[in-house]
Amino acid sequence: MTVLHPSSASSAHLAVEAVSKHYPGQTALETVSLHVERGRYVVLLGPSGSGKTTLLSLIGGFTMPSSGIIRIGGQDVTDLPPAKRPTTTVFQDYALFPHMTVAANIEFGLKLRGLKADARKARVATMLELVGLGQHGERSIQALSGGQRQRVALARALAVKPEILLLDEPLGALDLALRRQMQDELHRIQRQMNRTFVHVTHDQEEAMALADLIVVMSHGRIEDMGPPRRVYLRPATRFAATFMGESTQIEGRIHGQDGQSITLETEIGLLRGMAAPSSGAMTDSPADTQGRIWRTGDKAVAIIRPENIRTAPESGQAMGQALVYETVFQGNYVRVFARSETGQTFVLHSPAREVPASGSTITPHALMDDITIVPAQED
């Protein structure tokens, strides 16, 4: 069972408690619990089929759970339809009305809620200013760019003042430059309104740019959850490490433990690193690793991010010698791939002016604090 508690159940703004969703012959979500404080920007991150969209649909009421309870602001909303929940959703295709003006689209939900005309007009004006479309109220939806349509969809969803805004891959249809611009806008709007946002994406860079809480999902389970920096630099599981970006992964067996320092016996020698935190840890402090039991001889994996591998002797533990077999220019750094005689592959980021030549030999080094030891078998 996946149980994560960044806040207590009693204080959680959003509480998903032991929720499962089963279809004939398929489990989309397996006994997931998630407690989120008010005002968080939560990103559900994972590959296709991981359960992230199912979880978003359950929170929004578009899908009913097979078991479990969902509470928003302390209210049990498990059996309520979408229109009765204090949530609104922004979809990837925006779902705007093409025959209406920008203002009419934003006003639509307010009419359904019976808001008076003067109040509707004032709210629409406020929302237009919030999303930077103050002069576009009378324009046709058809005349807008993709980024402007995304802003209209966001304004329409926020106009009704939902407790929680749900975003289903809202930036997926935008090009890279516009996507980054809209990431900044979403972050600004969320902070300005102090609303809880729950955002689905498969893009780990987008997740790290937006979230203060990342939830990494796989096969209907939550693999890891925490602040972006912790989940990236100190992942709780091997899957979380792999999905959050490139890394060198060195397999071995537990040789010894000294507090939170783990010594791993590997084919390239003994390697010391820090014990992975428990899934759901909000920091990488020793207190967050208490739930794990490390046994001598158990299989484990050392995770090292590319930016934390150096070739200078003073840069920590030496990890043998490796032959550079490929370099890839990435603009402000070069990805360097090297392989040891034992077959261990290393990937590191090198400054563009210090790139080792293909065919040359390097000695990778890493500090103990930059190495995370995770169980070989997922929890």
UniProtKB/TrEMBL annotation:
Gene Ontology biological process terms in this record: quaternary ammonium group transport
ABC transporter domain residues: 14-244
Keyword terms of this UniProt record: ATP-binding, Nucleotide-binding, Transport
Cross-referenced Pfam families: ABC_tran, TOBE_2
SMART domains recorded: AAA
Entry's transmembrane regions: none
Keyword Nucleotide-binding recorded: yes
Cellular component terms per the entry's GO annotation: ATP-binding cassette (ABC) transporter complex
UniProt GO MF annotations: ATP binding; ATP hydrolysis activity; transmembrane transporter activity
Gene3D superfamilies: 2.40.50.100, P-loop containing nucleotide triphosphate hydrolases (3.40.50.300)
Name of the protein: Spermidine/putrescine ABC transporter ATP-binding protein
Organism: Acetobacter peroxydans
